[in-house]
Amino acid sequence: MYIENKSKGHHGLAWIGFVEFSKSGQTVYFDGKALKKLKNPGINANHFDIETGEEYWVSGVKKNGQNRHQFGGGKIMIDKNSIEEYLKLVDFDILDQNNFTIIEFSKTDKVDLTKLKIQK
């Protein structure tokens, strides 16, 4: 999935990697975060972080490799465990180091985040 923090417009932090979904499909878990689907999404965001309230755009990865908004910019962090699958999807041979920073997603404690979601 492609995930971009929209709290600072089109230049927010962005990630590509494997995510997990809640049973209902309304919450996306990745890199220690829980992003809940907005009921009435605005133009710039379709999810929010249940801990911070920051807004995020969550979508599938574009096969042409152009995931950033046309007016946005910045390197995309890509989980090292998803690079091989990403390269297959976009039909590239190598990862362009000018556009990506390789990271490793941390595990998400869904139990703690679910408790937080229930309390709010």
Describe it for me?
A hairpin with an 8-residue loop joins strand 1 and strand 2. This protein is an alpha+beta fold and 120 residues long. The protein has one domain. The mean pLDDT is 88. The protein is 15% helix and 28% strand. It is built from two helices and nine strands. A nine-stranded mixed sheet has the order 3-4-5-6-7-1-2-8-9, with helices on one face. The longest helix is centred in the C-terminal third of the chain and has 10 residues. The radius of gyration is 14 Å and the shape is globular.
Compile the SSE list and pairings.
Blueprint: E1 2-5, E2 14-16, E3 20-21, E4 27-30, E5 33-37, E6 47-49, E7 55-59, E8 76-79, H1 83-90, E9 100-103, H2 110-119
Parallel strand pairs: 2-8, 8-9
Antiparallel strand pairs: 1-2, 1-7, 3-4, 4-5, 5-6, 6-7
Q: Determine Rg (CA atoms, Å).
A: 14 Å
Q: Reading side by side through the largest sheet, how are the strands ordered?
A: 3-4-5-6-7-1-2-8-9
Mean pLDDT: 88
Outline: globular
Weakly predicted, low-confidence segments: none
* Computed structural class: alpha+beta
Number of domains in the coordinates?
1
Strand content: 25-35%
Q: Report the biggest beta sheet as strand number plus sense, adding barrel if it closes.
A: 9 strands, mixed
Number of strands: 9
Helix content range: 10-25%
> What is the number of helices?
2
Q: Give the terminus-to-terminus CA distance.
A: 26 Å
Order of helices and strands: EEEEEEEEHEH
Give structural attributes.
single chain; 120 residues; alpha+beta; nine-stranded mixed beta sheet; 9 strands; 15% helix; globular
